[in-house]
Design brief:
Blueprint (H helix, E strand, L loop, with lengths): L1 E2 L2 E4 L3 H12 L4 E5 L7 H4 L5 E2 L8 E2 H12 L5 E4 L3 E6 L5 E5 L4 E4 L1 E4 L5 E4 L29 E5 L3 H10 L5 E6 L8 H12 L4 E4 L1 E8 L3 E8 L3 E6 L2 E4 L3 E4 L10 E2 L2 E3 L12 E3 L4 E2 L7 H19 L10 H4 L6
Parallel strand pairs: 1-9, 2-3, 2-10, 3-6, 10-22, 12-13, 12-18, 13-14, 21-23
Antiparallel strand pairs: 4-5, 7-8, 8-9, 11-19, 15-16, 16-17, 20-21
Helix pairs in contact: 1-3, 1-6, 4-5
Length: about 325
């Protein structure tokens, strides 16, 4: 049985940064994540995608941000249980929580911080009857390694930020990029829309609006898609890869059965300290909800920072939190 001060469910960026803030208060953390490595969506979905809203970094690759966070928390020696899903919790007689994972690992702590991002998620798939036949054989729902598409012919479907951003990025990598969107307007950032339209006008990509990919063809591997245009009807196009980017379908998984107040698949919290309706359990990052909520990594960092102050008081009700600036004490002074 593993014992710690704070169990952090989710090893994404918010969960990792919480380790640092907890370490400044000499609180030990143990992280649990169903993914086999730390980083959450940043590692699993888009490690090579640049992020632009991290203070002090005009841009940083998602994977590099995770590497930096891991280096930042190294002095505080957190524990990790990876590749295992948080399944059940039980309140013990001493008021601590016993968390059991999908593989039977037991972890005990007085505080649980849920930093599960979108929770258990799966990609939203287009309604193409034989799409499963080509998964990992030319159909990918997540771009993990852009070099896979170098000098290839690709079709990207979608109209949100992810589809726009990857169309822009891969226009410099792939031999041919076609972006297919079923509407005329896009849901993504205006700047990205303008860049995609400029690339199309310059002939660097092919942009098809009011269109959908309705068929896939190939012999063991994808080599052709059928596209249906609202006016022009159906036509075929040779491809090496089809990448439908319609977002993720989030599910809380077993956390939904923990007795927490939940609204629209997100955990309701008190913005004073991001506590839930169960004393000792907090929720930070994309997994929580409150009036004015913004799903940004930056906001999750803020939430984790305030949360650990409250967690300290929950663990040590008779002690006073001694807030110290790292500019004065450095980090070694907190180990």
């Amino acid at each position: 049985m593993i014992e710690t001060d704070i169990i952090i469910v989710g090893a994404g960026p918010c969960g990792l940064f919480t380790v640092f803030e907890a370490g400044l208060l000499k609180l030990k953390c143990h992280l649990v994540d169903s993914l086999p490595q730390p980083g959450g969506q940043l590692t699993e979905i888009y490690p090579k995608k640049p992020i632009y809203d991290i203070p002090g970094f005009p841009d940083i690759l998602a994977g590099d941000l995770v590497d930096n966070l891991m280096k930042q928390i190294e002095p505080f020696k957190p524990g990790f249980t990876l590749g295992e899903r948080a399944e059940t919790i039980k309140k013990l007689e001493d008021e601590r929580f016993l968390l059991t994972t999908s593989k039977g690992t037991e972890i005990v702590a007085p505080v649980i911080a849920i930093a599960g991002g979108l929770g258990c998620f799966e990609p939203r798939k287009p309604p193409i009857s034989n799409i499963v036949d080509f998964e990992d054989k030319g159909v990918e729902y997540i771009i993990k390694e852009p070099e896979l598409y170098r000098d290839k012919k690709i079709v990207i479907a979608g109209g949100g930020d992810s589809a726009l951003d990857w169309t822009i990025f891969l226009s410099e990598v792939a031999a041919e990029v076609t972006m297919v969107h079923r509407r005329k307007s896009f849901r993504g950032a205006l700047d990205s829309v303008e860049k995609v339209e400029a690339l199309a006008a310059a002939g660097k990509i092919k942009l098809l609006t009011e269109s959908q990919v309705v068929g896939l063809n190939g012999n063991g591997k994808l080599n052709e898609v059928t596209i249906k245009h609202k006016v022009d009807g159906e036509f075929s196009q040779p491809v090496d890869h089809f990448i439908p980017l319609f977002g993720l379908s989030p599910k809380l998984g077993p956390i939904a059965d923990w007795g927490l107040n939940i609204s629209r698949s997100a955990i309701e919290v008190n913005t004073f300290d991001y506590s839930t309706n169960i004393p000792g359990i907090y929720a930070i990052g994309d997994v929580n909800t409150y009036p004015g909520k913004l799903k940004l990594i930056l906001c999750g960092f803020h939430e984790g920072t305030l949360m650990v102050q409250s967690a300290f008081k929950h663990i040590y009700p008779d002690k006073k939190v001694q807030f110290k600036y790292t500019t004065v004490n450095g980090v070694n002074g907190f180990e």
